[in-house]
Amino acid sequence: MKPALISWALSGGAAVSVGFARFGYALILPAMQTDLGLNYAQAGWLNTANALGYLLGALLTLLCVSRWGNRRLFVAGLALTTAALLASGMTHHFHLITLFRFLAGFGAAGAFICGGVLSGVVGTHAIVIFFSGGGVGMLATGALLPWLFDAAGPAAWTWAWIACAAICAPLSWAAIAAMRGIAEPSTPGMRAPWPWRPCLPEFTAYFLFGLGYIAYMTFIVAWLRKALAPAISVAATTSIMWSLLGVMTLLAPLIWRPVFNGRRNGWPMAASMTVLAVGAALPLAFPTLAGLWLSAALVGSSVFMVPSAATAFVKTNLPRPAWGSALAVATSLFALGQTIGPVAAGWLSDLTGSLSMGLAASAAVLVIGALIAMTQKPLESQ
Hints:
By secondary structure, this protein is mainly α. The chain has a single domain (3-186, 197-373), classed as MFS general substrate transporter like domains (Growth Hormone, Chain: A, Up-down Bundle), CATH 1.20.1250. It has helices at 3-10, 12-20, 24-36, 40-88, 94-122, 124-132, 134-152, 157-179, 200-227, 234-260, 267-285, 289-302, 305-317, 323-352, 355-373. Helix 7 (134-152) runs antiparallel to helix 10 (234-260) and helix 9 (200-227) runs parallel beside helix 11 (267-285). The chain is globular.
């Protein structure tokens, strides 16, 4: 594979593990709720199950990356995630769907963490490209799924999961092919110590990112159906919004390059979380199509820049053998927040009878995280 294509092909790992496995759920959720009769807490629980799998996968990556290496875990994660998406479309049983959402998250953790580490070997710009690959999944699902449901009805959610798996297969193949040209950054059997206390502001902010962003990505489609329908075409609005999210995610590497270049402190994370918080709050302040479009543009341009910032921080402040372990710790904290976020937002929405309350709380959490990230200073040279 040509060197110029490696970063983009590797980003297929982010598309599979996040764009389809995690964010695709937001588009499929309304149809699942209608067809299966789910309340908001149950809908949030399915995403929490995915996040629990992600958390366990992150912890396993922390324990095993020094023994098995990033490359093996990357391949295994992509294979498991794709298989779990396929299985999700083959049952109507709530508990089985929960299991497959869990397995999709479990596999996605290894693919996402280790893919980020491998992109760091290529360079800092490759890190941003890798995480922006999640926009491929968002663009594809946004362009296809709303029209599928409009034509075939809510019962077509099973076919939506199967279609996602069918697209993930070639993306996984491309990412694995790109990985073959990247050297393994970890030394088998060797653990590299690294100072975790000085990293607390960055990692705490990353936890709050997981806690805050997931409510928007889980419930925004359900919110627009409640707040803007029947004044709009739901299929067209959803498709445009999700496609805009995906397009802005793909443009994000160009937009954020000046912010990331040469910075070893917490400002890249603080800036991206601030933009994300504004984007998440906009539909509540301006419940119009214009507000929704601007919200999608801001969220799409920033949501994958937060994990990019965490990965770039680790890469520029810690020795290479410690990258896998440090990112696994950071991702475990992120996954813990992501585990709590959906069910908490769903519970709050059920309690108040309004999705807006859950979305407002998530925006507030993101602002707090941005303020904490501002306090992160560069670590002493290792």
